[in-house]
Design a protein that fits this description.
Distance between the termini: 68 Å
Number of strands: 13
Order of helices and strands: EEEEEEEEEEEHEE
Shape: elongated
Number of helices: 1
Largest sheet: 8 strands, antiparallel
Radius of gyration: 24 Å
Amino acid sequence: MLVRVVLLLSLPLAACSLRGFDGYSSGGDPVPPSTTGVDGGVDTPPARADDAGTTTRDAGERTVTCSSTGVLYGKVATSTGFAAFEAWKNPDAALEPDDASAEVALRYAGINSADLVVRDFGISVPEGAQISGIRVTVTRSAFPDRSIKDRLRLDLAKRSSPLRDGPAVWTSTKESAKYGGEADTFGVAITPADLASSAFSVALSAATENINGGTAKVDAVGVEVFYCQ
């Protein structure tokens, strides 16, 4: 009797789910993240970067392009707030990095400054793009050392973001503090139209817990927008 044995081999079919872009380099240039399949593996479609630093990735039949505006500085700055708050002197000095600074003297502990409001950043993002994050950079210093803390928010046409505490107390050495990031929209949904509106602004207020008070100085406020399309 002839017995034939047939071995049936089944090849598992690996399935992958493609996730969107979720990261940039620390210097602000966009880089493509990995895409993780349902089996725990990593499947990274080929990415292409052009001379402008824009990164593209093939996602099936659609190509996703992620980029950033680079750091943009405002053209208008004002001191806005109730009379009980200390007003900023020379707010226009906070528009660009240089040797001049907007400043406010807080005479005793518990006193707050008015809002230093910077707007008209000239932000241009393609219509239909998805805003993934905003990074605000404040170049600042304080006297005496470590005497100032702050809060910052984004103002849009009909709403504002929640207040964001500064990343650290201010020091007597001029430094650039960063708020938000590549995947942080400050708790609000933001569209290209919001950013193009004249109502878009950054508002920063300072306070001190130093019994003898302190002085806050802001040299520049810059905004960088991260987006994909």
